[in-house]
Amino acid sequence: MAIGLVLLALMLAYAYPVRLYLNQRAQIQQLELSQAQQRATIGQLATESAKWNDPAYVKAQARARFQMVEPGTKAYLVLPAPQTAPPAGAVADPTTTPGTWYGVLWSALRTADHPDGP
Questions:
Q1: Are 78 and 42 in contact (CB under 8 A)?
Q2: How far apart are CA 63 and CA 58, in angstroms?
Q3: Structurally, how many domains does the chain consist of?
Q4: Residue among 77, 49, 79, 73 at smallest CA distance from 64
């Protein structure tokens, strides 16, 4: 019986440190996983940063995002087909083309200038 009580006391004495050890191991695994994810993100950002150091990539992004061209180059913008027919006598405004950055900007400015309507 005395040996049983000693073993029980030892089990109770070691239970708390073992639980702390297991919790710390779980935290370490979670932090290692977080570090791996952060390293992957850093790798992706480094690759993207390297792309932006290439002048040809910057020119391609300027053409694609902002419809910019080099001086002396003719630019053509293909507009989408209108969804509805404009009323008779209405003049189409090419700066309000939906989906382009300048069309969105222009409509926001017109809305800010005339909050009740154009």
A1: no
A2: 9
A3: 2
A4: 77
In a domain? residue 69: no
Inform me whether the pLDDT recorded for 114 exceeds 80: no
Judge if 58 and 99 occupy the same domain: no
The verdict on pTM exceeding 0.85 is no
Instruction: Give the 3-state secondary structure percentages of the chain, helix then strand then coil, rounded to 5.
Output: 65, 0, 35
How many residues does this entry show for the chain?
118
Q: What is the pLDDT of residues 12-24, one digit of tens each?
A: 888 888 999 999 9
Residues of the domain holding 118: 77-82+91-118
* Whole-Å CA distances, 38 to 32, 45, 48, 51: 10, 10, 15, 20
In the chain, the largest separation of any two C-alpha atoms, in whole Å, equals 105
**Shared-domain flag, residues 49 and 101:** no
Q: Is residue 70 part of a domain?
A: no
